Amino acid sequence: MVDYLPKDSPSTIAMETMEEEFDGAVANTRVMIKDIEIQEALEFKQDLKAIDGVSEVTWLDDAIDTKTPIEMADKDTVDSYYRNGNALFSFHIAEGKEVETTDEIYELIGKKNSMAGEALDTATSQKMTGKETMYAAALLIPIIIIILILSTRSWAEPVFFLTAIGISVIINLGTNIFIGEISFITQSVAPILQLAVSLDYAIFLLHSFGDYRKQTDTPAEAMQMAMKRSFPAIAASASTTFFGFIALTFMDFEIGADLGLNLVKGIALSFISVMVFLPALTLMFYHWIDKTEHKQLLPSIRNVGKTLNKLRVPALIVLLIFMVPAFLGQSQTNFLYGIGEQPEASRAYNDEVAIEEVFGKHTPMVLLLPKGDIAKEKHFVQELKNFPDVKSTVSYVDAIGPAIPPNYLDESVTAPFFSENYSRIIVNTTVDTEGEATFAFIDEIQLLTSDYYEDNYHILGESVTLYDMKHVVEKDNTVVNLLTVIAIATVLLITFRSLSFPVVLLVTIQSAVWINLSIPYFTNTPLVYVGYLIISTVQLAATVDYAILLTEAYKENRKEMHALPAIKKTIDEKIFSIGVSASILSSVGFILWLTSSNQIVASIGLLLGRGALLAFIMVVLVLPALLSLLDRVIEKTTWKANFYKGE
């Protein structure tokens, strides 16, 4: 995730500074070896160093002189590396080599011993991404096919839908080669989201084609008329999603740009596929549709508009009751900024628990301080050790001692501690990787370091990266949400040529977003922030289509009848189509949630699944209520509304 932080963020600058000044990198992995003597541990350390991708292996001999009895050394320092016959090694695994290196380490340590750390988390997530994406697709495609079969009158139509969108998904994945690299989070989420969000376009076109075939002489003429009729609806639907996803690319935290670019590309390709490839495919093989016709498998829903219309007042009252608490709650959720914990059934999770049981929590940080004043560094290190959450430090004054000038020693001895400009101190802490207490601890460390060295220092480590991430994404939230609302409102303004319709539609869908994102707060469930940020855009952009579909039909019906009859007729006509679309998007979300071990992907899935259901409920209950309540306002603020005025 550090790759996606802005180039001017403190932890990015700190990382670049350390890479320029020192040969080594920050430890991102730990290994615990059980029942081992000190001499055996020193030999194991050399075996670990010999593995390709491993560097900066740190153990007890880097903190004290292991030639002297360890009983004479500082107990806290010894316990950080060697306790009850168990040895804990810290080291760095090179970026890009996480999978193969951790596999080789597992072979070295066997099943008896344990490994944990940031690099292992990355390796585990990368391994699971491909498997889980295929597993999700294997579950999802049959479910979508079943939904489509139930909602169409031909066995072949679902094949046409999935072929048109499937080809655009494959092209989108293939064009990522021109980007160079994408996040494994994007790889997990983007293809399935693209399929779910853009399947509506194909459904709109083929349903329209089926209607016009009853009115025209040739399939070609029916397709021409279907393309002309469905183009505005498909273009409006694609535009709201397209511009909503573009808002993600304005995030400073560049995971948003990574996912946003893929989704924008995917929506554009899906639109082209539906308007160019699908008509050609259909005209070549339309006889398959004729040959595979079947009776409608779902019973018709009659008078549902009349029933739902009776609920419009209670629906508005419920919305008014929940809107403000939902808005306040969604901003007060307890957020996680990393990728969260590994699944409890995984070896990675159990190994981490095993290491913590023996050595406690271990979150290392690295400080780069101005080089030169050993006496000041000694006092600074002493103050660092006074923090309850600091269990040990590794520095020149710890390992060598302030009495011996560095100039008297060989460079190989001093290289881990000094560069040309900086002195390096490793701080081993017992804080969690992230959380309020951890971020408060980082503030305290920064305050102490500033007292000694003003602003002339750097601090880095996984928790520091997450600290920076927190501050970056909090700013992003306001920008992305504002841009999303402005972009979608502009599209709606052009589509409906109205000042009031966009407001009504956005209030409806945004309320569903707030309710969805407030549930973790009211259930006291921590939420991965990247998932929160992405879904606040994705849900609004993807589900506003339901509101567009219903409102367009209402607008036409309102020209022929009064508001309440128009709403009843519109619900009767469109609830089935909206229900199909919502059920597909909801299925996608819940399957991502159920199949993914990555908490970011799983949280996006859960929020998307729940959000699609909430949007459906809001569109069929609250939106009709708002349309009838504000009928006069809508008529006066809509260009050429031509609403029915008969008795």
UniProtKB/TrEMBL annotation:
Keywords: Cell membrane, Membrane, Transmembrane, Transmembrane helix. SUPFAM superfamilies: Multidrug efflux transporter AcrB transmembrane domain. It is found in: Cell membrane. Residues 161-284 form the SSD domain. The chain crosses the membrane at residues 134-152, 159-179, 191-210, 231-251, 263-289, 310-328, 478-496, 503-523, 529-554, 575-594, 600-630. Gene3D superfamilies: Multidrug efflux transporter AcrB transmembrane domain. Coiled coil: none annotated. The keyword Transmembrane applies. InterPro entries: MMPL_dom (IPR004869), Mycobact_MmpL (IPR050545), SSD (IPR000731). Its main location: membrane. It is a multi-pass membrane protein. PROSITE patterns: SSD. This is MMPL family transporter. It comes from Virgibacillus dokdonensis.
